[in-house]
Design the sequence.
């Protein structure tokens, strides 16, 4: 792989709330790199870490992110209480757990702009779907603060854009989709990234100001609504009918013993 970036890095800095960009042709994981840097008091944030290829990209838990050249993989290191002020109000700490949903809604809004004819939605808690298949995964981590550096979040995303899945393992092809395969064309990754960053900034502002339109949006986009779901939540297996995502970001499930609100869990199956 060439070390040259396919991204217009200066344009990203000029056109978004990002203050600095770090490019890697190959990196083990952009989130690992973000966690490594997050404790530095001198770090300029929001910092965007972009990678041409990840050798050990991570998802939630022990999951790994499979990708080839052409995928859009990056992490943002930022302090939502300070850096979000570039686009509006600071995001209170108690609202940080909803930032993964905010990132997903932002991507759905971008997809609606660039591929309006294909259905898209959120697979709680951290995936984005196109035509029922995974196009992106989101991983938000909050490493411990190392004073005098403030507490920062590391938000990682992997998006299947120009990385055709025709050579992917069969299980990846059955569950995932790349934008280029979905529409038969390649995309300008810089433009898509700028669209997402600016939409994400707008929605961080909405989260900070408690705009009721934001949770209404992620509730509407929930791809699990109306389906019977089984989720591993801690040491419990929860089964029931999904009723969407509430304003706090919890998945609403009607079980045999009554309604439940799940703030974390792993989806085992749907029906």
Sequence:
């Amino acid at each position: 792989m060439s070390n040259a970036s396919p991204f217009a890095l200066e344009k990203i800095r000029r056109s978004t709330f990002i203050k600095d960009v770090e490019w890697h042709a190959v990196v083990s994981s952009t989130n690992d790199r973000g966690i490594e840097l997050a404790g530095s008091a001198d770090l300029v944030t929001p910092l965007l870490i972009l990678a041409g290829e990840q050798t050990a990209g991570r998802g939630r838990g022990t999951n790994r992110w499979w990708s080839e050249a052409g995928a859009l993989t990056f992490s943002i290191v930022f302090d939502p209480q300070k850096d979000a002020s570039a686009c509006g109000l600071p995001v209170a700490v108690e609202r940080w757990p909803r930032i993964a949903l905010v990132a997903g809604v932002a991507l759905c809004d971008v997809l609606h702009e660039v591929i309006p004819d294909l259905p898209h939605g959120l697979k709680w808690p951290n995936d984005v779907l196109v035509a029922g298949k995974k196009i992106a995964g989101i991983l938000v981590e909050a490493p411990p603060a190392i004073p005098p550096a403030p507490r920062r979040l590391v938000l990682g995303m992997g998006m299947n854009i120009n990385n055709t899945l025709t050579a992917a393992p069969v299980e990846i092809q059955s569950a995932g989709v790349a934008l280029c395969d979905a529409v038969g064309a390649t995309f300008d990754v810089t433009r898509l990234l700028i669209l997402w960053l600016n939409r994400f900034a707008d929605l961080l502002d909405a989260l900070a100001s408690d705009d009721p339109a934001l949770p209404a949006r992620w509730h509407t986009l929930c791809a699990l609504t109306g389906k019977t779901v089984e989720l591993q939540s801690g040491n419990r297996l929860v089964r029931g009918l999904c009723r969407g995502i509430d304003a706090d970001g919890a998945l609403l499930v009607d079980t045999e013993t009554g309604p439940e609100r799940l703030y974390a869990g792993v989806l085992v199956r749907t029906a």
